[in-house]
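Case study: Pyridoxamine 5'-phosphate oxidase family protein.
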Amino acid sequence: MEEIVKFLKAAETYYLATVEGDQPRVRPFGTAHIFEGKLYIQTGKKKDVSKQLHANPKAELCAFKGGEWIRVAGELVEDDRVEARESMLDAYPSLKKMYAADDGNTEVFYFKNGVATISSFTHEPKVIKF
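Here is what the predicted structure looks like once written out:
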């Protein structure tokens, strides 16, 4: 999992795909954090992505850097504990301008049944299940 987070942080931006009805939705994200041995992302409850994940938790993200790309698939499960939100905000202090752990909007999700695949045109894919 450390390798996954290292890749995502080095890429700086990844693209998170969700589903709304029968329509895929993709948007840029930047949070990737390990808390209690799980891979977490962060968003706001007011955003469409939150509503989409609550309706259908299956999601996938993708990032590219240095000739390699990573795809991470799984189910995103909300962790409603303040400790999880605080940990994310401590890892990304710049978010504190827009979010607070107890603001009723900040939301963190962790990957359940995650599978990451790191690919390149020059090597075989590396698969990491977590």
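For the exam, be able to explain this: Helices lie at 2-11, 48-55, 82-91.
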